[in-house]
Specification:
Blueprint lengths: L6 H17 L4 H4 L18 H13 L17 H13 L7 H13 L2 H12 L5 E4 L15 E4 L3 E8 L10 E7 L10 E7 L5 E7 L5 E14 L3 E2 L5 H14 L3 H17 L1 E2 L2 E2 L4 H28 L6 H26 L17 H8 L10 H12 L7
Parallel strand pairs: 1-4
Antiparallel strand pairs: 2-3, 3-7, 4-5, 5-8, 6-7, 9-10
């Protein structure tokens, strides 16, 4: 692997950085308290930030940057590295744009969607006009997704969907559900479900809020009562939903905010230099220096996985194991970063958003609560370890 960026890639980084600095409000960090690697503090999932999030998404769409990693025939530049650079820069500045549509639904549709679905949805995704939410988890089906109970019964040219989804991030601020449902009750578990798109405004769809641990409305529970879904909204083949969701999960595991970690580390280092305790800057305390150095090393390890995955994609390789390793590393890093930040700030880390004495606008306290969500979403850390052990190391599934 060549760790150097090309001139074109470096020029692109400068271009997107200049754009972000120009359009972001100067007090943006006082509004949003996003914590990297987590799900509960993403501003684009909250209603109060929708106006600015949608506006910025459309700006990115106008520049062709939302689908920059897509093949050229679908309006992209076919550069996973540029997509990774974009993600790195946008997350560093906590840019409130992007989501399930661009990072999961779009790439999956390109690979397994019908031409009809591609024509209907890819232009709107690439332009930032439409959004999706994930309809995987249910009250009794999360990591064990084959236990899902939502059904889709064949009814001629449509499926009739009944059931419930939970932890549906952004369902209240997007237009379409990316939903998996049982379509064959008698088939083997992994050949019994189908992935489909369900418009939120379809009769029978009910969305109810779930207020998360940070006090934000990002999650929802969604109910389907005799919802009629045209068969043209099936993604991939009928009863191949689990395989298509596994494909989509690879894209989700790679859509990480790499720059957000560097940004928080820089803020913590600055805090340590500027804050005195017992008459000495915190930066002179060996324990503080060791803790920050340890986080800096882990961020570099994470970034190696991040850039390697993009590098592999641009060479036609499929980073299946790398996606699991990347997801495992960056979500566990989110927790370690929150723990380190809380130790460094001491009692001030407990202050909430809105407190005048809260460092970083209360981001650390919120991040400490939110960080626990990262190792759960998109497949738990335990699942990622199992994938790496069985598929990567060839270890047996059972003793």
């Amino acid at each position: 692997m060549d760790f150097a960026f090309t001139k074109e890639e470096l020029d692109f980084r400068r271009e997107i950085e200049a754009f972000v600095k120009e359009v972001l409000p100067p007090d943006w960090d006082e509004w949003a308290v996003y914590w990297p690697g987590s799900y509960g503090t993403m501003p684009q999932l909250e209603a109060e930030f929708q106006e600015i999030s949608r506006r910025f998404s459309r700006m990115l769409g106008e520049k062709g940057w939302l689908g920059i990693g897509w093949p050229k025939e679908y309006g992209g530049q076919g550069s996973a590295m540029k997509a990774a650079i974009s993600g790195d820069v946008l997350s560093y500045y906590r840019f409130p744009a992007g989501g399930v549509a661009t990072t999961i639904a779009g790439p999956t549709l390109i690979l397994v969607g019908s031409e009809e679905l591609k024509k209907e949805f890819l232009p709107g995704i690439a332009s930032g006009e439409i959004g999706f939410w994930l309809g995987y988890s249910e009250p009794n089906a999360g990591s064990d997704l084959v236990s899902l109970k939502t059904t889709a019964v064949d009814d001629g040219d449509a499926f009739i969907v009944n059931g419930q989804k939970i932890w549906s991030s952004g369902a209240h601020v997007t237009e379409y559900g990316w939903v998996i449902a049982k379509t064959d009750m008698d088939a083997p578990a992994h050949k019994s479900a189908t992935l489909m798109i369900i418009p939120n405004d379809t009769p029978g769809v009910t969305i109810k809020p779930i207020i998360n641990i940070c006090g934000n409305h990002s999650f929802n529970e969604v109910f389907f009562d005799d919802v009629r879904v045209p068969k043209r909204y099936v993604v991939g083949e009928v009863n191949k939903g689990f395989y298509n969701v596994m494909l989509a999960l690879q894209f989700e595991r790679m859509s990480v905010g790499s720059g957000g970690f560097r940004r928080v580390l820089e803020e913590l280092v600055r805090f340590a230099r500027e804050t005195e305790r017992d008459g000495r800057p915190l930066s002179e305390d060996p324990r503080v220096r060791k803790a920050l150095a340890a986080i800096a090393v882990e961020i570099e390890v994470f970034l190696t996985f991040y850039w390697q995955s993009a590098w592999m994609q641009d060479r036609g390789q499929v980073p299946e194991l790398e996606a699991s390793a990347l997801k495992l590393v960056f979500t566990e890093l989110s927790v370690k970063l929150a723990d380190t930040a809380m130790d460094l700030l001491g009692p001030f880390g407990l202050l909430d958003k809105g407190s005048k004495r809260a460092p970083f606008g209360g981001r650390v306290g919120m991040g400490y609560l939110d960080a626990i969500s990262g190792p759960i979403g998109a497949g738990t850390s335990e699942i990622q370890k199992t994938i790496l052990a069985t598929r990567g190391l060839g270890l047996p599934r059972k003793k």
